[in-house]
Amino acid sequence: MVLEMKVPHGTGFVALQPLIPVFLSYVLSFVYIGIYWNNHHHLMHAARHVNGPILWANLHLLFWLSLIPFATGWMGENHFAPWPVALYGTVLLFAGTAYFILTKTLIARHGNDSTLATSIGGDVKGKMSLAAYAAAILLSFAQPWIACALYVLVAIMWLAPDRRIEHAMTE
Amino acid sequence: MVLEMKVPHGTGFVALQPLIPVFLSYVLSFVYIGIYWNNHHHLMHAARHVNGPILWANLHLLFWLSLIPFATGWMGENHFAPWPVALYGTVLLFAGTAYFILTKTLIARHGNDSTLATSIGGDVKGKMSLAAYAAAILLSFAQPWIACALYVLVAIMWLAPDRRIEHAMTE
Amino acid sequence: MVLEMKVPHGTGFVALQPLIPVFLSYVLSFVYIGIYWNNHHHLMHAARHVNGPILWANLHLLFWLSLIPFATGWMGENHFAPWPVALYGTVLLFAGTAYFILTKTLIARHGNDSTLATSIGGDVKGKMSLAAYAAAILLSFAQPWIACALYVLVAIMWLAPDRRIEHAMTE
Amino acid sequence: MVLEMKVPHGTGFVALQPLIPVFLSYVLSFVYIGIYWNNHHHLMHAARHVNGPILWANLHLLFWLSLIPFATGWMGENHFAPWPVALYGTVLLFAGTAYFILTKTLIARHGNDSTLATSIGGDVKGKMSLAAYAAAILLSFAQPWIACALYVLVAIMWLAPDRRIEHAMTE
Do the chains contact at D7 and C59, CB–CB below 8 Å? Predict the structure, then answer.
């Protein structure tokens, strides 16, 4: 796991209090990385063929995910200030777009009638997430907490049981 | 391995002395992570089916385990002071509970008559560990060293050869 | 992923500006590590036999790749100054040479008529890269930006679809 | 890879000079971890059965290997001073002993007539290494450079092609 929290210097409970925003952003990012990890695992498991564009689309996704610890640390250490919250949303937006591109390169290789294409479907959840991230970035400068609430809502949407994945796994 | 010890500045043996509590908490956490690693490996190896709840129960366990380095560092650098020792126990308590939930979601998917359910059994060790962690958290504020002794005892209990696992492996 | 960016202290957009060169060198190194990761994966997948020299040639390659984060950090934090840019090129030159040695030990084990030897071929791209790194190291002291442009050009050359790899994968 | 080098603050070649001992100890530890990685890989690959003692012997070995980055950093940053050089040898001695114990638990499980037991044989190299580490620890306080020379010699002895491993791999 790439996420990390710095050990505080004090001994008492008071030393932990300034870490609360750091911990909250840690939890949020842990959930996001977990969602990507699970979904990515299923996506790659369903893939029958790999080609150059798929490999690079995959690396492109990993690039944006690799920036999550940086965005998490900046947001947590600055108590969810506007710019850090906007940057966090930007990284999520690019990661979500990269995931979308990865599904498109996979469908292009497997065909529109493939099981993989059918299981991805219209990807309403993916598109809704991108719209939510974009809205959250703009809202960061007005009310950063609304932006954070949007990040939490998107995460909950993905945590809820997904029939498509359940179905793919039982086959 | 996620555990880490900072390199001291001095050159002599004296420079290592303040690291003794850091090293002791490092050893304890290494053993705990090793126990989880082994048990988790066997549990997942015995699993025949996976579903959404199992994946999230697994991620939930990983979340609490990912906090062990933080709790270890805080406890070691503060020479086993009350609050850090209590936090360490809290992380162990949540990790143990997460492991318990994971076994329950696995049994729910495989059925009470499955080999997996039989090999987990009544899980007396798991329940005793949770009770010991809870007691240790309370004792941290009176006598932190008794709490630490409890953490060590639980670790030894798990290190002792487990007939269930041995049995499962020979099959 | 071993690459890392330190979280800045300020809260505003201004705090991110000094990170621009750090981010640029991060992107460049991410792409290079990605290229090595993909190519190495295909090379090892195509290998039918392994012996001592192959194992050590592989470890030799990993050694130089393990220095990329260090060279990346030094180059980014010093805004592409001559010596850091030259060191970056030196690490790339040694990594490229190590990859070349690895292909030679693999061909020596599999024979000149093997599929592996044929798919590696004359390795014009590999030799051109080594020449570009060597030129870039010398140019670092005159115009570090020309050296950086060479690093980017080599990366683009490797990112472009490679018919050899595509071909090997479809088989 | 767990080994790491801190990025220096200066821009010129002079900034790299104090890193020379850090780099030398980095190279030495990289080679040692590589040797353990290769040998451990072959040992585990040759194992047909696993039991509790083997798992714990394996974890015991990982514990001592996990301390190598700490010992490496302390030795490199203190320019091979007596105590750090002695600590480095101590970690190598315990890691070597842990590897020896692991081979014994593996032989106990597979029998003295097993292919695994035959391929390990009398383990002269392993015993010679332990003796060299013990001698180096004592020599650290008189002449640390002789201790370092011993560490290098042991590493070279393991890097030299090993007929046992070659033989095991071709089978």
Answer: no
Burial label for C80, CB within 10 Å (0-12, 13-18, 19+), is: middle
CA distance D12 to chain C (A): 6
Question: B74 and A8: CB-CB below 8 Å?
Answer: yes
Percent of chain A as helix, strand, coil, to the nearest 5: 80, 0, 20
Given an 8 Å threshold on Cβ–Cβ distance, is A52 in contact with C1?
no
d(CA D157, CA D161): 9
Instruction: Find, among A87, A99, A101, the residue nearest to A151 by Cα.
Output: A87
Residue C88: closest CA among C72, C65, C99, C64: C72
What is the distance between the alpha carbons of residues D129 and D132, in angstroms, rounded to a whole number?
Answer: 5
A56 pLDDT band, cuts 50/70/90, is confident
> Using CA atoms, how far apart are residues C31 and C24, in angstroms rounded to an integer?
11
A29: nearest CA partner in chain B: B63
Q: What residues contact B17, with CB distance under 8 A and at least 6 apart?
A: none
Nearest CA in chain C to A48: C170
Report CB contact under 8 Å: B161, D52: yes
Closest-CA residue of chain D to B27 = D63
From the CB of residue B166, how many other CB atoms can be counted at a distance below 10 Å? 12
Contact B3 D66 (CB under 8 A): yes
Cα D144 to chain centroid distance, Å, stands at: 18
User: From the CB coordinates, do chains D and B have 3 or more pairs under 8 Å?
Assistant: yes
- pLDDT of A41 strictly over 90: no
- C73 touches D at CB < 8 Å: yes
Q: Would you call D22 helix, strand, or coil by DSSP?
A: helix
Q: Do B52 and A3 count as a contact with CB atoms less than 8 A apart?
A: no
Torsion over CA: C85, C86, C88, C89 (sign): positive
By C-alpha distance, which of A126, A121, A119, A129 is closest to A152?
A129
CA-angle at A139, arms to A135 and A142, nearest 5° = 165
Cβ distance D73 to B169 less than 8 Å, yes or no, reads no
Pick from C53, C66, C81: CB nearest D11: C81
Is the model's pLDDT at A1 over the cut of 80? no
Contacts of A8 in chain B (CB under 8 A): 74
ipTM score: 0.87
Please indicate if any CB of chain C lies within 8 Å of the CB of A4.
Answer: no
Q: Is the pLDDT of residue A3 over 90?
A: no
Query: Mean pLDDT across chain B, nearest whole number?
Result: 90
Pick from B114, B98, B56: which is nearest to A165 by CA? B56
Name the helix (H) or strand (E) containing D46: helix D20-46
Suggest the residue from C56, C105, C110 to mutate for an interface test with chain D (most D CBs closer than 10 A): C56
pLDDT tens per residue across span A58-96: 999 999 999 999 999 999 999 999 999 999 999 999 999
